[in-house]
């Protein structure tokens, strides 16, 4: 994990898991999304809850559009086309589009 040194002499990770955000938010009495936004706005973290490691992507049961595009080696635009034409089912969670890994595997098995 890459880290960044700040003048206040503690080390912060560039990314943080969704679980870490949730736990910290509970301890502070905040909503997780609000805490994550605050940390990102102040440049304390670059991302949270997103996986870039290919091995981890292979094990995730639920993926974002970006994660699905990385997993399949295609652009986000291609994923959105598959969503639009109904080839790939999706679920909306607030403003995020989520895809089930099982649906991606099913699509891949149909095309091979």
TrEMBL record:
SUPFAM superfamilies linked: Putative DNA-binding domain
NCBIfam families attached to this UniProt entry: excise (TIGR01764)
Domain of life: Bacteria
Domain Helix-turn-helix as annotated: residue spans: 63-110
Recorded GO MF terms: DNA binding
Database matches in Pfam families: HTH_17
Name this polypeptide is given: Helix-turn-helix domain-containing protein
